[in-house]
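Subject: sequence -> structure tokens, single chain

Hey, anyone have a minute? Need the predicted structure for the following. Not urgent.
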Amino acid sequence: MKRFLTQCLHKASRYLRKYLLHGCIVLLFILGILVYNGNYVERFGTAHFDCSRLQEFPQLEYSGLTGDILEDDNAGKLDEFADSLQKRYNSIMELAETYSCPPTQTIAYVCGQDDLCGGVGDRIQGVISTFYLALLTNSLFHIEWSKPLPLQEFIVPNRTGIDWIGAGSTKALGSKIPVFDYGYPDSLQIIEDANSMNFLKSWSRYEHINIHSNQAFWVRLTKNNTWGAQAAKNYQLDQLPPSYLYTIASRLLLSTPSNKLQPYIDEITKQWKDKTAYKIGLHIRTGGEGAWDDPKRVDVSVAVGCFVDEAIAIYNDFAKNHPSPPMPIFFVATDSQHATDLLREQLGKFNYTVYTSHGNITHLDRAQEGNLFDDNVRTYADWFVLHQMDALVITRSGFSETVAAMTLKPTRRYVSGSQCKFTNFADVLSMDDWYPRYTWTDYTELGRIP
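Reply:
Had a minute. Here:
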């Protein structure tokens, strides 16, 4: 009996050691996977993701980007870069949600009913700057553009892009979260802050940041030596020439017209019977005698002739390099019916075909109560049609400058007050600002809206 009990204990001990060893091996294997894949910190009973390393996941490879990539008219490598940037940003947001460590803030571009936001071009510059601020701080990005109508009435997020509607609004987030409104009354202060302010540290106590600005400060953010430059490297923006920062962001966020707007665009473009025609867009922002009250920008009687000569010269340069060049067509967008009529008349003398849109010409900040969609649809339709041009001739206006910067098509910009002098808009794309800005105080003293 004693011998039998001894044998039983020996076998039990052997099996216990065997399975205990196997169990330890399995446990160590599982822990190894957790540590390798997630950088978990030990907590009793729960694995905890170290959110401080969030920006390291995932690492994506970009193909080489150089200043000569635009030999491809479609800027294919820029779209490739934008696609990779978008995937990385979305992946970081998804990882944050998966491991319950959401971004510190939601950062929103805001243009509310009581705000003075400027026109389409001004607002879009604010949107792009705000996007880079959200991107570089690993924050959720949102657009709350509601004046005079929500932006998504006219422009929607790309199907596979970044959802800037989402749940990022103050209303969706709830009214009790800490909210910080940043920008007005002195929008110019943002430019100075973008140079050196550590937004991560300064805004750490807020959950939601509203940005009220139409400033172009995205380049400054990526050069900010307190945090921005390193954050830009995390997205490999240091590989991208600064002049293309606007291009990739605008293509990600603002290149898709809404289903409601698309028929108005088609109504214009379906008139082009020759689909191979060389398309030249002309945009004159007259001011003064235009459709809204603001300072006069150009002398229409002089500028129209200059624009016609420049547009024809652009076509002639194109034709020299093509044995059988297609005929040109011209699309005209202005804030002045008088300027439109003069351009049509002068181009008609050369038997050139000129197209325009129809309807009200309305500045977004001056929209009156009534049928707001009909009053504003022409503005957005013209903006999208200009994107389809092969070349542009423009005045100093954010409306057409944002088109030129997104499409990177050859663009000549009229020098106001000159005798038919034009410059290449590409020469100013890499600047921190495309044009001089005024402070909010300046506008108040002048008694006009930017």
